[in-house]
């Protein structure tokens, strides 16, 4: 197995129908951005049971055991579409020193959070510069739509909101399995791990985390219905930023079998993102880990029992209108030379000028060899330190259970760095800003990498926390 395969949790690109033992699940979209009781009754008369109604975006989640439900519901006046819900396998408070007036970037920061010196990403985007200006994300809420979180982790618990919830049937929002990596905990920790004299520090350590579980903590899979509900829930529960470190390996079909149904599900998700923006919640997503040029893909040959065809694929959720897609950057040999370049485009990161909004630290394992290095008293193969270090769950230790931290890499790690910077910006401006204003500041303050201006690899640039809070 390659180092990259060991380091990055990726999706396997499978798509299937969501069904319970008794009934299949459907996403029903109305013609307009409403779904009143009268329309709901008509849909149920067609043979469905509404399990969730989202009048904010004109969508309902419906169960039915009728084989012809989609056709029947699709004929109801006022209904735009009724399609099977699809499951996707996704590419899976204050410290004692809080009154100290100055911070230094790692390495050798002297900070009393014991693992801060392992966070090269904090240096790359100059989080200490933002903290020195008094900005730590206070009065902001970041919703993490992911696989739940380790609710009792010492770096998560202090900032976790009690109305965190799950849209994965049979699974609660809290990840309680000892000895397993939890993607959502890693993402949440990058954003807002508390500055508490233990472990790591998030980009915005005073931001609050609204954990919204839309991916299974067991399989890493999720479905459109859960994601759509999760976005609306976050928007309605005070989220200023919605982070979706999700990605379907390869993408979703734009043409060929099933493409029309997928298009309707994507459209419903687009409505949810648009609604979130109307509630001043900015959606930030990972660009994907396929190493694809999203501007110039020529199509992929897909084959099944009915033959083969050339499919054009769209990155999801990276190509959702209204969302900011984030590419990943990384050093190559940071442990060998901490003063080196931290801004190489990660080898796996998707790119494309029409898609990428910004770039941020995501980590990589491009450094050859397995020689050991020691950083902050920790010895590992040198390439490991080029990954992103953050909370990840719990570990069994003699006599009990301990908080666990892990290195991993992906655009999943890049997106939360940007979400954290967005929280810093919003916090500076009183905890409420329009997404367009946040985007404007991100664009004005990011470091221009690559060719001048917006480019294929880094979009509007690699975010810079210190400069962002100067606007």
TrEMBL record:
One biological process term in Gene Ontology: proteolysis
A GO term, aspect molecular function: peptidase activity
Catalytic residues as annotated in Swiss-Prot or TrEMBL: 146, 183, 412
Keyword tRNA-binding in annotation: no
UniProt key word Nucleotidyltransferase: no
Gene3D superfamilies found in the cross-reference section: Peptidase S8/S53 domain
Keywords noted in UniProt: Hydrolase, Protease, Serine protease, Signal
Pfam families reported for this sequence: Peptidase_S8 (PF00082)
SUPFAM superfamilies, per the entry: Subtilisin-like
Renumbered residue ranges of the record's region Disordered: 446-471
Residue ranges annotated for the Peptidase S8/S53 domain, each copy included: 137-461
Signal peptide (residue range): 1-23
Family the UniProt entry places it in: Belongs to the peptidase S8 family.
The protein, known as: Subtilisin family serine protease
